[in-house]
Amino acid sequence: MIVDKILQQSRVMLVLWGLLVAATIVSMIAGRWSLAFVAFSTLILALAPVFVASRLHLQLPLPFLIATTLFTFATIFMGEAFDFYERVWWWDIALHGGSAVGFGLIGFLFVFMLFEGDRYAAPPSAIAFMAFCVAITVGATWEIFEFLMDLSFGLNMQKSGLQDTMGDLIVDMIGALIGAMSGFLYLKDSRKGVTTILLHQFIAMNKSLYRKSKDRLKK
C-alpha cells in the first residue's frame, strides 16, 4: 500500500502524522473541540495527496509529499491553532510564496502533460508562461475566497484588507515565476536546483503521462 511505502522511507511524515493524531486525541480529552477539529482537519488534508495520487495511479516523489505535509501542518495547525499568522510577521508571506512555487510546478507538469511531454510542441517559454498563469490564477482565486468569507461571515482572513491582498498577490507572482522558470530550465535540459530536480523525478516516475518524453528520460 502506498502509505506503508511512504512510512518506510520517511520518519518526518510519521512524526508529523503522529503529532496530529496525538493533538486530536488530547484536545478531545481536554474538551478543546475547536483545536481537535483543526488538528483532525490538518491530518486529513495532509493525507489527501497520498490517497488522491493512489486513486489517479500517480507516483509522487517523497520530497513532494514531505513538502505538502509540512505546508499543511504550518498553514492550518501552526497558523490557525497556535496563531502563528499573528505571532510571526513573515509566516503568511513564506506560506504564500511556498504555495505559489508549488502551484507553478504543478501548473508546468499539467501543461506539459497536455502536450504528452513533447517539448517541441510549444516553445519552452510558452509552456512556462502557461504554468505561470495557472499559479497566478490559483493565488487570485484564493484572495477572492478570503474576501467572500470576510464579507459573508464577518471573518478577518484578509487581515489589513487591500494591503494584505496586494502583498499576497505580489508574493504569489514571485513564487509562480520561480515555479514557471523551473519548468523552463527543465525543458532546457537543466537539472540545477531543487525544484528542477523535483520536476525530473515526477516525470520519470509517471512516464505514461509523458509518452513523448520517454526517450529523453532514458538519457
Sum up the overall morphology in one term.
globular
Q: Sheet bearing the most strands, described?
A: none
Total number of distinct structural domains: 2
- Low-confidence stretches at least 5 residues in length (pLDDT < 50)? none
Helix content: over 70%
| N-end to C-end Cα span | 30 Å
Give the count of helical stretches.
10
Please indicate the percent range of residues in DSSP E strands (runs of 2 or more). under 5%
Number of strands: 0
Question: Please, what is the oligomeric state?
Answer: single chain
Alpha-beta classification:
mainly alpha
One letter per element, helices H and strands E, the order comes to HHHHHHHHHH
- Nearest-angstrom radius of gyration? 19 Å
Description:
This protein is mostly helical and 219 residues long. It is built from ten helices and no strands. Helix 3 runs antiparallel to helix 4, helix 4 packs antiparallel against helix 6 (91-114) and helix 6 packs across helix 7 (124-153). It is globular, with a radius of gyration of 19 Å. The chain starts with a helix and ends with a helix. The mean pLDDT is 83.
Layout of SSEs?
Blueprint: H1 2-9, H2 11-30, H3 33-55, H4 62-81, H5 84-87, H6 91-114, H7 124-153, H8 162-187, H9 194-205, H10 214-217
List keywords for this structure.
single chain, 219 residues, 2 domains, 10 helices, 78% helix, mainly alpha
